């Protein structure tokens, strides 16, 4: 990436079930026979079946904490991890730890959290369809303002005299790309021959943009000074700005629709809910005729 281009703002969470929520699965009733056939038993721990779905939940729960390893080693690791969970959970049951008020509170919390996550995921799944993403893409591209883009090459040097010498060589017929590879201090020049691709006026530093957008196609600039040094610019092409392709922004569209669907659902539930704060004193009514801050 050339140092000329202004950096875009960073654009920034998956939902994961907790280990405790995974352990809760031990208490669930057995699945129907046809579901068991699709979810084979891979191990037994003191008589407790460990199924493929159990390993999937453990893998999801561990996330980035799961060490990198071969598929076979990972499967062994997950079986061992889950087997340890089963054994420890059974030992805890033997000590009646599951009957304590603290455990019951934590169990209720984890159940609430897991239900929330499942509902959020289901809401996103039902809302994020290919049709919805394409509709959002079409609406967004229609609203894009017409804006000119320039494609240009440049050679960046330290001094004005060096820039004048480069310009003289170009006027004598030197190949721009070859000269950029040997003369330019822009790190990308060796691979790109000074080609910056298409850019809008706001994507480059002002001194550079003012000259580049003023030049005609094929025209060379006089030496241009910026904070990076001295440039010689040649405009390769001009066009109206093209919207990014659907596949280029598909992840952003999916993320937007997910956040919107989940946010709308939460807003609706909040509007319908009665939430009472018992840890705060009710605010005193404002004196008659006085506006409340």
Question: What brief labels describe this structure?
Answer:
Chitinase A, domain 3, 51% helix, 3 domains, two-stranded antiparallel ribbon, alpha+beta, single chain, 293 residues
Low-confidence stretches: 5-33
Major pleated sheet: 4 strands, antiparallel
The strands making up the biggest β-sheet line up spatially as: 4-3-6-5
The overall number of domains is 3
**Which term fits the overall shape?**
elongated
Q: What share of the residues lie within helices?
A: 40-55%
**What's the alpha carbon Rg, rounded to whole Å?**
31 Å
State the separation between the terminal residues, measured CA to CA: 50 Å
Content-based structural category: alpha+beta
Tell me the quaternary state: single chain
Count the strands?
Answer: 6
Give the rounded overall mean pLDDT: 86
Portion of residues in beta strands equals 5-15%
Total helices: the number is 11
Give the SSE order as H and E letters: HHEEHHHHEHHHEHEEH
Word description of this protein:
With 293 residues, this protein is α+β, with helices and mostly antiparallel strands. The protein has three domains: 19-127, no CATH class; 128-144 and 244-263, no CATH class; 147-240, Chitinase A, domain 3 (Roll). It is 51% helix and 13% strand. It contains eleven helices and six strands. It has helices at residues 19-24, 33-38, 52-62, 71-94, 101-127, 130-143, 160-171, 176-183, 189-192, 206-214, 246-272; strands spanning 41-45, 48-51, 148-157, 195-199, 224-226, 229-240. The strands form two sheets. Strands 4-3-6-5 form a four-stranded antiparallel beta sheet, with helices on both faces. The protein has a two-stranded antiparallel ribbon with strand order 1-2. A hairpin with a 2-residue loop joins β1 and β2 (48-51). It starts with 18 loop residues before the first helix and ends in a 21-residue tail after the last helix.
